[in-house]
Amino acid sequence: MSLSIGIVGLPNVGKSTLFNALTKAQNAESANYAFCTIEPNKAVVPVPDKRIDKLAELVNPQRVQHSTVDFVDIAGLVEGASKGEGLGNKFLANIRETQAILHVVRCFDDDDVIHVSNSVDPLRDIEVIETELVLADVQALDNRLERMKKQLKGDKTLVPKIDAAEKLLNHLNEGRLVSSYPEQDDKNILALIEELRPITAKNIIYCANVDEEGLAEDNDYVKKVRSLAEERSAEFVKISAKMEEELVGLEEEEYQEFLESYGVTEAGLDKIIRTGFRSLGLISYFTAGVKEVRAWTIHDGDKAPQAAGVIHTDFERGFIRAEVISYAHYIEHGSEAKCRSEGVLRVEGKEYVVKDGDVVHFLFNV
Description:
Oligomer: single chain
Distance between the termini: 22 Å
Number of helices: 14
Order of helices and strands: EHEHEEHEHHHEHEHHHEEHHEHHEE
Strand content: 15-25%
Structural class: alpha/beta
């Protein structure tokens, strides 16, 4: 399982610059004009996790495998994108395939960087993007509703599904996101969301892109975006895409010194990954052996068989038991053998809920 995040926003807000910084490579063309990204850029980025690096130091494996995040950089959307304006809505399909949305919003003044509306207004910009996302969902739901109505004569079981679809469509037509629909637990609504994968049903992380001066203290633009995120119980991060891009290639020590010089303790990548994991309820557990030390991504609350299934479906199907060591105990004692002899290795069954940082060995039989 990997986390998939779609980066959206108006043209020239810093999406491609951020993408370059996140992927640690200049894979997305960045230029001072609209639509410099003409195809969706995709990259698989390892999740930085000092815990797995520490385990690797102790185990000295042949290889180390971090969890990964798939980043998808979508071309800048403009007003009317859902109707074909700008580069049209072909990029909206790419957003549907992601699990979360990183909505990058420009929160700095710079006369040398063109803004498509000729002024900086983050709340207006957010409204423009979200309106296009809502309209794209309206179109998808409207098409589905039309098909169901044609099938109604031969299948009366569609009546409650049509009713639910019409209610959700009315909600969208009021300019509201699917995620704010009040009857989220309705089985018919859940079925529609699973089938159509509405863009506005996804977790949104509002990302305020500031200049270097805006890192230490929130400017008025940032305060507005942060307040909106709080009102919607959404996630929020503040980064300087330009600064993050400049950090690419620096040695770890120099990298940290650079961050600290601007009063920043956490890099933009780490912040976005951590926020993305939290927003989707994801955690990592580890497997540690001489061949490989590896991080595996699961949902918080997954039981041992489900966690085993992330490695291979046979592990879940033939699950017998799990041998579990907490990360803290593993670091304290230095090896699996020592943890076993000290009695901190636990044997857990099918009902065990795997914890973040657990070091696990699964036993199975198929």
